[in-house]
Structure formats: structure tokens, C-alpha cells
Amino acid sequence: MEFDVTTLHGRRADQRWNRMVVGDVLERSTWSHPDRDAIVGWEGAYGDPAFARVTYRQADEAANRVAHALLAAGLRRSDRVLLYCENSVEALLTLFGIAKAGLVAVPVNPLLAPDVLTWAIDHVGATTAIVDAELWPKAEAPFAAAGLSPVATITIGGDPVAGSPSFQEWIAGHPATEPDVEPRLHADDVWSVLFTSGTTAMPKASMATHTFSYLAAGSYVPSLTRGLRYEDELRLLTFLPVVYHCGHNSTVFPAFFAGGTSIIGRRPDPEQVAAAITAERATALWAGAPQFLHRIADAALAAPDRLDLTSLTVAMFSWGAMRPDLTEAVSAACGETELLEVFGQTESMSCFRFWPAREPDKHAESASGTNHVGLPNPLLGARIVDERGASLRGVAGVPGEAVYRSPVVTAGYFRDEAATREAFAGGWFHSGDSCAYLEDGGQVMVDRYKDIVKSGGENVSSLRVEAVVAQHPAVARAAVVGIPHDHWGEIVTAVVEVVPGRELDADGLIAFCRERLAGYETPKRVEVVEEMPQTVGGKVLKFKLRERFAAAPR
In this structure, what DSSP letter does residue 520 have? Predict the structure, then answer.
């Protein structure tokens, strides 16, 4: 063991006793609560009953076995491991095993269109994959096109993929002890790559370091443990995607940093979420969209004899349009539960916080359309700048772009230097969101610069959808916008001009798109216009389309 007692700068904390890496998180809690549940899977969120509930000791040993299994397969430092998985206990254990082995996790959204999945596999250079059995039929052709085969199968919804063992079989026989990895692991190493939608047809691969995940998770612990007497009483529950979405940093890992328990479900279902809160006495909930939180409360109120949400002390949701009676519904169902709204993105996870109970007047405005996002948490440097990059701080009501700097900001876009340089122009990360200051220094979101549609927890590239809609023989011109919707948050809406002399069948256009796009990308609504509103230069004024069709909902 080496000790440097003379150098005071340029030091590197990469010894086992002082490093800060994701793979050590579970092990550290074995010294305090080895037999406490670390992860609880609700029905359907595990392939093998042995993983329905795992203690910190069991979770750490399983993650060690994953690491050894990957290294035994010949993987080398920073090789990329693809996860084609929905939520499961085994998938979360795999993330930790990948981190322990010094490899890079690349979870991908199973709803990606086949051509995008094949591109993503090639872009990151993945050579190994773990898949869910029930998802394999959709993945088989893209995997084959990319020359990738699964090394193991999580047996949810089916048997192991031909030629691969089950997850349990795969890790069995491998050591439960921590692997030795060289070069030594360090906080600045990238341990995961998450694909995030952008304005181009293909997503960008956002790199997260160990520092990123450590500090993101740690920054959420104070917020999610509000109302508890002791922080290790945290029982954090979510049924929203947390494997291939950034939510594992903010809605799973914080439970481990508090010494508490993470409770996960397979897919979002309001009544099942309410049932899980009741059975597991969850104390904090990640609900995603405010509309989904409302549905959870409604489910509980409809069955008060079976469902009890009063164990919740915090219900967290992301920015979005909300019904005016959200607070009343949550209070009726949950009692003294604090609502917490967060505003951020995959590349910047140490988010803004908005506590409605602290600013009820602003919350009332949010329910009627003013999008209050609160203040950045103390780990996040955030300001709004104009088109020249000059700060608008102190100038209320003038829209500009929200830009950030923080240790919890992406390390860049893997193999995309141009996009990375653009994102960090001027030394700040450019969010692509248009915001404005208030007189009191708070912020509101004005619009999305890049016209991303946020539907059902997914980010949809409007340009990608437009490119497909425009391929229809009856479409002369297309614009895609998000229209507010009670269930989805926003729905993908295709606004089209029709080729003169042709007739357009809306259902036919939707079916045409469904064959070429992922389900969440496919338009749910089609509107025909004679002429698009546009600038002198011919650019479609999408905000006018949003205003027009939001005022005439279907």
C-alpha cells in the first residue's frame, strides 16, 4: 500500500479505504445494518423469488458475484455492458456489480425503435448484455444486427434466452467477495452511460461518473427523509423506470445513502403503487408526473378499507402541468405528507426544489399554468442567460436559457465531442430549457428551447417524429408538439398540412407511424391545418400550435 504524505495537490483518492465509487455503497451499510432489507421487489419486479427481498449483506454479495461473472467472461476495464431491462431487483444488483468490476453500465430503454437500438449498441461499443426474458422478442433482431448476444437473462415473463443462463445460474459459483480491479477505481471514472433524447434523430449518450451519482444521491437524502425521526427509517418507493432512466440516482440510491430501504415495482400502476405503500409502509414516494401522483391518491381514496398512504412523509414529483386540487387530494389520502417538486434532467441531477407548502401562493399559480420550479439546491450553481451568454439575474420576467455548473453535471456525451462542446459553451452546461427569474429570485419555466415532448415519463424528439410523419404520402408538411394531457402529462400531437388533392385518415397516419416509431414516440393525436404559423424565414411557430390545440382539447 502506498502513502503520499508530502504532495498537497493533484492527489488521487483511489485506495480501497478512501475511494468514492458506486460499487462500495452497499458494502458500506453492511457495517451498520447488514440484515436490514436493502431492496424490496414488489410482485413482478424480480425473476427469482430469492431476490424478492435482499438485505444489505445479500445485495452486496450478489453484486460481487455479478462483478466476478463479468470479469470471468473476459471483460476489461471500462468495457460497456448493455442492460435491456425494466425495473427488477436483479437489474439493480447488476448495476452495482458492473460498478464494482470497473466496467460501464449502459441501460437502454426497451421502447427504443429497433433502428435506434441497433445504433445505440454500436455507438457505445457494447460487447455484453443482460436482458429481460419478456423483452427479448423485440430485442432479438436489433441485437443480431449489432452482433450482440445476452450473457444472462432475468427470467421475468419467460425462460432464459437460448444460449444464456438465468441470472441466478449466471452468478452462482462466483465468489461473494469483492474483486480486485486494476487500474484502481476512482471517483472521476465514468461508471454509467444513459441515453437522453435530443433534437436530433438519435439520442445522446450522457456519461455519469461515480462522483455524479454519489453527490446526486446524497443531495436527495435530506429532502426525502423530511418528517422522519431518524434518516435510516427511509423507505423509498417507486414503480417508475429507474434502471434505464436517471431515477436510480435520485430515487433508489438515496435509500442506501441513508441506510434505509428501496422498494421498487415493475411498471407504474396507481392501485399497485398504493397497495405497495400500504404493505411496505413506504415513507417517501417518487411519483414522476403530478398527474400520476393524483391517480395514486384517487386510488387510495376509492378504497380506504384496503389502501392506507398515511406512512408517507414526502411525495416527490417532477415539473409538469397539474390539476388545481392536487394538494387537497394528496392531503385527503396521505395526511401530513409534504409535496416536493423537482426540476432537472438526465445531465444535471442535483435539481431545483419547490416545496408547495412553503409557498402556497406560488403553488396555486402553478396549478393554473405558471410553472414555478423553485430554487436550485446548494450543490447546483444555476443561472439564466440571454442569447449572448450574459446573466439575467436581477432582471425579472425576461426569458433566457437555464445553465448549470455542479459536480452533479454530466461528464459529457460519449463519442460526441461536438455536442459536448455545444452543451458546455461558456463553461456552463446549457439545459435547453427557457426560464425566467421572479422578483424574489425564484424561477419559472417558460418553454422548452428544443421542443422535446414529455409524455408518460419519456422524452420524445419532435424532429424524429416529424421526419416519420412527413414520409406519409398524404402529408405535405408536419410539425410535432406536446399538448397537455391529464394522464400522460403531454401527448405527442402531429399537426400536418395535407397534399392538395389527397385525403388524410388520422388513424391511418397513426398506424403508419406506429410501424416506424417506438410506442411512446407515436402520435396520439393528429390535427390538420391549412397553413402552419411561421416566421418570415419559414420556421414553424410551435408555441402557436400548442396554444391553439391546448385550447381545443379532445
Answer: T
pLDDT one-digit tens code per residue, 459-474: 777 767 887 898 899 9
Short-list 242, 233, 237, CA closest to 349: 242
The phi-psi region of residue 261 (left if phi > 0; otherwise alpha if psi is between -120 and 50; otherwise beta) is beta
As given in the structure block, the three cell numbers for residue 358 are: 412553503
> In a 3-state reduction of DSSP, which class is residue 416?
coil
Does CATH number 2.30.38.10 belong to domain 377-450?
yes
Q: φ and ψ at 304, to 5 degrees?
A: -65, -20
> Please, is 427 exposed, middle or buried when counting C-beta atoms within 10 Å of its C-beta (0-12, 13-18, 19+)?
exposed
Contact between 328 and 322 (Cβ < 8 Å): no
**Average pLDDT of the segment spanning 243-264:** 96
Residue 437's region, left for phi above 0, alpha for psi from -120 to 50, else beta, is beta
Do domains 377-450 and 453-550 share one topology? The answer is: no
Q: Residue 447's pLDDT is what? A: 66
d(CA 176, CA 174): 7
Looking at the chain, how many residues does it have?
554
pLDDT in tens, 328-341: 999 999 999 999 99
* Neighbour-count burial of 421, counting CB atoms closer than 10 A to its CB (0-12 exposed, 13-18 middle, 19+ buried): exposed
C-alpha to C-alpha distance for 175 and 155, rounded to whole angstroms: 22
What are 204's strand-pairing partners? 196
Rounded Cα gap, residues 457 and 209, in angstroms: 24
Beta strands in 504-543 (DSSP E): 525-528
Tell me whether the omega of the peptide bond preceding residue 183 falls within 30 degrees of 0, making it cis: yes
C-alpha cell at 231: 434518516
| Neighbour count for residue 267 (Cβ, 10 Å) | 12
62-99 pLDDT tens trace? 999 999 999 999 999 999 999 999 999 999 999 999 99
| Positive or negative torsion for Cα 412, 416, 417, 422 | negative
Angle, to 10 degrees, between the axis of helix 290-302 and the axis of helix 270-280? 70
DSSP characters for 445-510? EEEETT--EEETTEEE-HHHHHHHHTTSTTEEEEEEEEEEETTTEEEEEEEEEEPTT----HHHHH
β-pair type (261-264, 284-288):
unpaired
C-alpha cell at 486: 391529464
Three cell numbers written together for 296? 395514486
CATH of the domain spanning 453-550: 3.30.300.30
Among 108, 154, 111, 147, residue whose Cα is nearest residue 130: 154
- Helix ranges, 199-252 (H): 210-224, 247-251
Q: Per-domain residue ranges for the chain?
A: 377-450, 453-550
Q: Which amino acid is at 507?
A: D
3-state secondary structure of 543: helix
